[in-house]
Amino acid sequence: MPFPVFLALFGVTSVLLLRLLFLLRRRLPRLDAAMPRTSPPRGDPEPSGIRVAVVGAGPSGLVALRELLAAGHDAVAFEAGQGVGGTFAATYDGCLLTTSSTNTAFSSFFPEGEHVMWTAREYVEYLGRFADRFDLWPRIRFGARVESARLAEGRWEIKVSSSRAGDDVATHHFDNLAVCTGVNSHYDLPAFVGQVPL
Is residue 155 a part of any domain in this protein? Predict the structure, then answer.
């Protein structure tokens, strides 16, 4: 079969399948109706003695922080901005997410109310409620830009600046590092043997 014909058939099949799923969704009972709206508290986990630095307090940083704390690790998030949300907190007014609240919300903290397309501001508010629910605020250092991270003698040496000029730098040591800065952040990729150009 020629490739253009295959693409046309694939496109038509995809559209028909999506239409069928849409029609079925309207006839099936809401699958999330019986889902708990938040995860039950896990209690106080046994401390692991492992210190973990989380870079970023956007969606992935908040979830990483929550899961690390729930596993008993001593975790701290460093966020360059003044609030949670990462890129979503610094976007233009009226920015609309391209996925519904049903798909964007965390399974451990399902949003109340109707399923909608959130604006960036509404999503940042949701992330704030997530931080409230799991008591993450005391573990987030705002206005703290990670300037460098290097593995030295089996531990991570993290240099964090607390000013825009970067002249007030503190050094912290952690056992592990989770970089949760997202795809819209500037990064410096070190050169290494066998590297494929981006």
Answer: yes
72 in a structural domain? yes
- Listed residue (85, 57, 87, 91) closest to 183, CA to CA: 87
pLDDT for 158: 95
**Left, alpha or beta for 102 (phi > 0: left; psi -120 to 50: alpha)?**
alpha
Residue 174 in contact with residue 158, Cβ under 8 Å? yes
Closest CA to 59 of 187, 182, 184: 182
The residue with tokens 């990064």 is 187
Residue entry with tokens 């795809």: 183
Quote the number of domains for the chain. 1
Which tokens go with 86?
């990462």
62: Cα separation from own chain's centroid: 6
Q: Is residue 10 part of a domain?
A: no
Amino acid at site 146: V
> What's the pLDDT score for residue 44?
76
Classify residue 187: in a domain, yes or no. no
CATH of the domain at 55: 3.50.50.60
* DSSP for 12-27, written as a single string: HHHHHHHHHHHHHHHH
**Closest alpha carbon to 120 in 96, 99, 143:** 96
DSSP track, 110-125: PPPSS--EEEHHHHHH
Q: Which domain holds residue 71?
A: 51-179
Global pTM value: 0.72
Contact 129, 137 (CB under 8 A): no
